[in-house]
Amino acid sequence: IFWGVFRGWSGSPGCATAPCSWGRPSAPSWPAGITQFFGDFLQIFLGFFGYFLGYFSGLVGDPGLRDCSLQLGPPLSPELAGRYYCRGDLGGYNQYSFSEHTTLEVMEEPVLEVPAELVAGAVAELRCRVPDSCPRQRPRLRWEGTEELPEVSESERREDAAGAGSVVARLRFRPRREDGGRRLGCQVTLPNSSLAFNAGVALDVQYEPQVLEVSGPSEALEGSQVDFGCQVLREEPGVASLPLHLAQVSPQDSGTYTCVAENRHGRHNRSLELHVAYAPRPPVLNGTLWVVAGDQVSLTCAAASHPAPIVTLARGRRVVAAAVYEPQVRLELPAAAPEDGGEYLCRAENQHGASSLAFNVTVEYPPVLLPESRCAPLGDGAARCVCAAAALPLPVLAFELPSLNLTVAEGHRDFALTAPGGGPGGPGGGPGEAVTAVLTLRGGLEPRLAVLCAARNGHGAARMQLRFHHPAHLGTPGHTWGVYLGYLGTPGGLEPWLAVLCAARNGHGAARMQLRFHHPGEAPGGTPGHTWGYLEDTWAHLGGVFGLPGHTWGHLGFVFGSPGHTWAHLGHSWGHLGAPGHTWGTEYHTWAHMGDVFGSPGHT
């Protein structure tokens, strides 16, 4: 006998059918002397808790076909639920009760089969199972509460298990996080009945946690405290808060702060940027600070801060480069000059403070002879010559006396070297250092004596003939000592010792050469009608002739003659030539130059 669980609806329309079958051996073995089998008269009884029902109208199976199926109801009351047994009876004491049994379940509502876990975003299937054991009472099923579910599909089919039939309705959908708590129901109705059976369930949708908000400042001042907050929505117990406290922030605390929430279904995060504001840090230099004149200079000055600083490079009160709201400033010099050397100040500032850095740029250059280089008489036939030069590195100074074939340098008894001084000695006010050498000439001055100032270092050399500065008068009456041209001698002729030098210099060095005199026709200099020179600032200019009174002697056709005649230059009066005390000229291209004295002692 095969048994199973059978179900039926409670109430007047409800009924249930219990499947049952039985069998017997086809050739039974009997004890000796017994040969008759009374199988045709077998009686089947169904018992309920020891009370046997026997034959009654509820037996729907044919015992002759070995079918002992039983139908209970309608109506079907809850007290009929329980276990049912089967007993075979051949009469008298020939009875047998089977230990196998079936169980009747009287249902008040459909059976809802819900997955153990509903996860947001994953397809879920709910089942509504109802018995279908009454041939004339086929149930009708309907789902409720599915109107707003996404991706909904419904299906229905009949299942048989151990002879007990049931109808299963399926509902497939993809739950969302917001579907948590939504109620879904299954309703069952029977034909010719107003009764309806309902079952419902509230959806428990599980989902990955969600970070709702990350709170906190986006900017904080260095040294202050900062508090962050993170609000997380999760399944249990709902919204949770996670705090983060920074007691004293520094620039290293700047960055992205992320709140992460995760469970077995996934993870979610939100971020917040924190910028720590601070005053500029001490500037940092990058580049070459020591160059040779003419080299390119490229250096940067950078300072870290937040917000970005204003960075300036200044030399004294003059700003030479600036960068606004940039981390660094650049100084570019295509060709460094000596005046570019010196002290610079890099300053970075923002609204939270400032910092600065002083540094020096050193430009090495060849010697430059300074204006104070000159000679001056001391009286009694002695003179004092000064040779001053600026250079980096410091130059070596010497005096050259070509007429004596003599060079006087450090170590000579008449040579004195002063200690170098910084700052104003350099050209253009640069950082070059000036060195001054002094030579004392003793024992009388020869008229043809020439003194040269020479300076040299590793980058070049410079040389210059020194001029003699006479505050009151000049040596022998009627003689000119000149400037840069040697001694011109007495008016009216060229002395054979006359030396004329051509000099040229720039920032890299100097050159000097003594000029030779060219006399057309080999005529002696000074004879009337002959050319007296071809360079500017000579007595004769552009082929003019020097000679007797009335002849052309000067410049652009002006006439020189007897005392009192006009000797002019470009329309300016040179005055009167002759009697002592008269003015000999004040304009340029004059015989007298930069305070030098021409003529008789004491006369201008």
UniProtKB/TrEMBL annotation:
It comes from Catharus ustulatus. Residues 110-275, 280-362 form the Ig-like domain. Belongs to the immunoglobulin superfamily. SIGLEC (sialic acid binding Ig-like lectin) family. It is a single-pass type I membrane protein. Transmembrane segments: none annotated. It is found in: Membrane. GO terms for biological process: cell adhesion. Keywords: Cell adhesion, Disulfide bond, Immunoglobulin domain, Lectin, Membrane, Transmembrane, Transmembrane helix. This is Myelin associated glycoprotein. One of its GO terms (molecular function) is carbohydrate binding. It comes from the Eukaryota. One of its GO terms (cellular component) is plasma membrane. The lineage of its organism: Eukaryota, Metazoa, Chordata, Craniata, Vertebrata. PANTHER family: MYELIN-ASSOCIATED GLYCOPROTEIN, SIALIC ACID BINDING IMMUNOGLOBULIN-LIKE LECTIN.
